[in-house]
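Changelog-adjacent note: as of this version, every example in the card shows the full chain rather than a window. The one below runs 146 residues end to end.
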Amino acid sequence: MRIDGDKFRNLFVILFVAYLVYLFYLVFFSAYYGRGYHHRNYNFVPLKTITEYLLLKHGIKGTIVNIGGNILAFMPLGFLYPVVHKSKKNYKHILIVSFILTCFIEGLQYISGAGTCDIDDVLLNVIGGLVGYIFYREIVKKGIIK
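Full-length structure tokens:
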């Protein structure tokens, strides 16, 4: 099956906007992720939080939710962004957009007290954006999407 990105562009734009809305809901309002109370925490030491989770200091479920969730949360960005923005189809754009969006979210988390402002989230989210982009490139290579 082949999907012509131009014919389905409006659908991809809607999916992209829906993804961004859902991402902001999860980050700032979802009770499942501990939102709903105000606390101002931050971590600016790279790999500190990731190391804690990999050492299972927060349990296996916490590790999967934090590390896997941060990567998974930005995979749609890496996939949908180049479909929606035809002229921005290389990994550098995904790196920049993932980085800027994550820094924006982390800054808002710090200001609003919804969640923790963490440099490791930036690293994991950028990795997620790149994984999504790799998936996008593979789909294009296979001719499924143009």
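Structural remarks: The mean pLDDT is 90.
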